[in-house]
Write a structure and sequence with these properties.
Helix content is about 40%, strand content about 10%. The chain is α+β, with helices and mostly antiparallel strands and about 160 residues long. The chain has a domain of about 110 residues: Winged helix-like DNA-binding domain superfamily/Winged helix DNA-binding domain (Arc Repressor Mutant, subunit A). A hairpin with a 2-residue loop joins strand 1 and strand 2. Helix 2 crosses helix 3. The protein is globular and about 60 Å long.
């Protein structure tokens, strides 16, 4: 029988796990630039403003995590660009939703630094949709069901 966990251990959480990989400013900005087609190191440095050594570390981490892949675009001299993997592309809706939140709460309508156009020709306004019923997701419609033993929605259960 495994030893009981210390009650000071934080809640097991997929959000925390994802943030451990992409929750740092420069990692998210790398993804932004890759989505925009700017996966070459020199463009990343210019467009992000990160120190070269910090950027190189973030890129290695994103490649090691399977979020980005290095693709050679020149043999002599050997040069690479970074492209999103399937896992990396699955983060794009998260980035679009984060951008929309920033546009709504940190800027004015006339101060938006970028617009993203959907294939229909309209400016994207991302919304989370339930795949089962097709309805937009709202906080009041959600109920959490913790799956980690010893945890409730309020925190550790009494028997921990």
């Amino acid at each position: 029988m495994p030893a009981p966990k210390d009650t000071k251990d934080p809640r097991p959480c997929s959000i925390a796990d994802a943030l451990a990989l992409v929750g740092e400013k420069y990692s998210l900005l790398v993804l932004r630039e890759v989505y925009l087609g700017n996966g070459r190191f020199d463009r990343l440095v210019r467009n992000i403003g990160a120190p070269r050594d910090v950027l190189a570390t973030r890129l290695r981490r994103l490649v090691d995590a399977g979020i980005l892949v290095k693709h050679a675009y020149s043999e002599r001299p050997q040069r690479f660009e970074y492209r999103a993997t399937r896992a990396g592309l699955e983060l794009e809706p998260v980035m679009m939703t984060l951008m929309a939140w920033g546009d709504r709460h940190l800027r004015t309508e006339d101060d938006r630094p970028m617009l993203i156009e959907h294939a229909c020709g309209e400016v994207l306004a991302p919304v989370v949709i339930c795949t089962a019923c097709g309805d937009a997701v709202h906080h009041e419609d959600l109920k959490a069901h913790p799956q980690s033993p010893g945890w409730t929605a309020a925190g550790p259960s009494q028997d921990r």
